[in-house]
Automatic annotation (TrEMBL):
InterPro entries assigned to the protein according to its UniProt record, in alphabetical order: MBL (IPR050698), Metallo-B-lactamas (IPR001279), RibonucZ/Hydroxyglut_hydro (IPR036866)
Residues passing through the membrane, by range: none
Name under which the protein is recorded: Beta-lactamase domain protein
Domain Metallo-beta-lactamase: residue ranges: 16-182
Any one Gene Ontology molecular-function term assigned to this protein's record: RNA endonuclease activity
Record organism: Marinomonas mediterranea (strain ATCC 700492 / JCM 21426 / NBRC 103028 / MMB-1)
Length: 365
C-alpha cells in the first residue's frame, strides 16, 4: 500500500497538531485521513493551517486545544473519531464516532489500534495498520502516576511527541523542586489543566499528607490542599471504565475527598492552566497567592516569572528524551519523526535517539 504522510502542522516547532495520511485500503480505494486538528496555542482564531480536501475521517488523540481547536472549521459531514471522554469537548455540530481507549477498530478499511497515552483523561496514541505500521503518539508521557501508557504494537514509521525537545529531567527532580519552592506564609496557587494535571498533583500532595513520604520536611504540611470545582474530581475513578487510570491511582483516588474549595488553603490546584480565567485568573489578580506554573507559559506568565512574581517548575506531561528513546526501541521503527519541537541539529538528535530520526515533514513510500 503506497502512502503519503504529511505533517501539515506540528513539524519543526510547538504548533497545533495536524497530520495528513493518504493511502489505499484493502479494497484498493484511496483513503484520506487527518490525525488531530489543532487550534492556536495562543488562543488566536487563525489555526495556521488548512484542512485538506476530501477527507474520509478525522482521528483525534485527546481533548487539548492544540489537538482539537481546528475542528470548528471542519465540514460537519466528515466523521470525527474520538474516545468517549474526549467527545464532550468537541464542537456539537460534528458527526462524532467512537474511538476505543484501547483496542482495534476498522475505519474506512484501515485497521486503527489505540492505547492510553499517559497524558490526559481519555487521551490515546493511534496506530494505523498501513504496511508495517504507522504510529502517532499524540501527546504522551511515561511518567504519569495518574494515567497509564499502554505498550504500542511495532511500527515502521513513528511520529512522536517531542514537545520538550532534548530535555531530560525526570519527574522526581521536579517534585523535589516543588517541595522546596512552596511558601509557608501564603497560599500556593498552581494554575493547572482541569482534565489531568490538577488531579495528578492533588494525588501527589495527598499521598504525602497521609505520611507516605519519608523525605518530607516536617515543617511542610500537604494535607491542606483544595481542587477547583471544574477539575476532574477523585470520584471520576468510580464512574470511569477500568483501565483509564493507573492501578496505583485507582487505589489512591477512592480514599481522597477534597475539602471544599477555599481561597486560603495551603495548596490550591485550579484552572485555567495559563492563569487567564477561572479561579486561577481570579486568584492571580487578587495578588495574595504564591503562584507556581507547571506547564506552558503564556506571555503574561513569562513576564511574572521573569519579575519574580511567579515561579515555573515543569511537571512532566510530555516525554523526556530518555522516554522518547525507550518508545522508539519498543516500536522498532525504521523512521521516526519528532513532532512539536525545533530540530536544530539532526546529528545531535540521532546521537540521542538513533539513526532512525528524520527531519522532513513529508514521508512517501
Ligand atoms: Zn496535550
Amino acid at each position: 500500500m503506497p502512502a503519503r504522510i504529511e505533517v501539515i502542522s506540528g513539524f519543526g516547532e510547538k504548533a497545533p497538531a495536524a497530520i495528513y495520511v493518504q493511502t489505499t485500503n484493502k479494497s484498493g480505494q484511496t483513503v484520506r485521513l487527518l490525525l488531530d486538528a489543532g487550534g492556536s496555542l495562543e488562543g488566536l482564531p487563525d489555526k495556521g493551517w488548512n484542512i485538506p480536501d476530501n477527507l474520509d475521517a478525522v482521528l483525534i488523540s485527546h481533548d487539548h486545544q492544540d489537538h482539537i481547536g481546528g475542528l470548528p472549521d471542519l465540514d460537519k459531514q466528515i466523521p470525527v473519531y474520538a474516545t468517549p471522554q474526549v467527545q464532550p469537548y468537541l464542537p456539537k455540530q460534528l458527526t462524532v464516532q467512537t474511538l476505543p481507549n484501547k483496542g482495534t477498530i476498522e475505519i474506512v478499511g484501515i485497521a486503527v489500534t489505540t492505547g492510553n497515552a499517559g497524558h490526559s483523561f481519555g487521551g490515546v496514541w493511534i496506530h494505523l495498520g498501513i504496511d508495517n505500521g504507522l504510529f502517532y503518539s499524540g501527546d504522551f508521557c511515561k511518567e504519569s502516576e495518574l494515567f497509564p501508557f499502554d505498550p504500542p504494537p511495532t511500527a515502521d514509521i513513528a511520529l512522536i511527541d517531542a514537545s520538550y525537545g532534548l530535555y531530560d529531567i525526570p519527574q522526581s527532580r521536579s517534585k523535589q523542586a516543588i517541595r522546596h519552592s512552596l511558601s509557608q506564609t501564603q497560599p500556593n496557587l498552581f494554575p493547572v489543566p482541569q482534565s489531568g494535571r490538577a488531579l495528578e498533583l492533588a494525588m501527589w500532595f495527598h499521598s504525602h499528607s497521609i505520611g507516605n513520604g519519608q523525605d518530607i520536611d516536617n515543617r511542610q504540611r500537604y494535607d491542606n490542599w483544595v481542587l477547583g470545582e471544574d477539575c476532574i474530581q477523585p470520584n471520576a475513578v468510580l464512574t470511569s471504565p477500568k483501565g483509564l487510570f493507573t492501578t496505583y491511582a485507582e487505589q489512591a483516588l477512592v480514599t481522597m475527598t477534597p475539602p471544599p474549595f477555599n481561597d486560603n488553603a495551603h495548596i490550591i490546584l485550579c484552572g485555567d492552566p495559563e492563569g487567564f480565567s477561572g479561579d486561577a485568573g481570579r486568584l492571580i489578580d487578587s495578588g495574595h497567592c504564591h503562584v507556581i506554573y507547571t506547564g506552558h507559559l503564556p506571555a503574561h506568565a513569562k513576564t511574572a516569572v521573569a519579575n519574580d512574581e511567579a515561579h515555573f517548575i515543569r511537571w512532566n506531561v510530555h516525554p523526556t528524551i530518555s522516554d522518547q528513546a525507550t518508545l522508539i526501541e519498543e516500536l522498532q521503527c525504521s523512521y521516526c519523526l519528532p513532532l512539536f519541537t525545533k530540530i536544530n541539529d539532526l546529528s545531535e538528535w540521532q546521537r540521542r535517539l538513533g539513526d532512525t530520526i528524520i527531519d522532513t515533514p513529508i514521508i512517501e513510500y
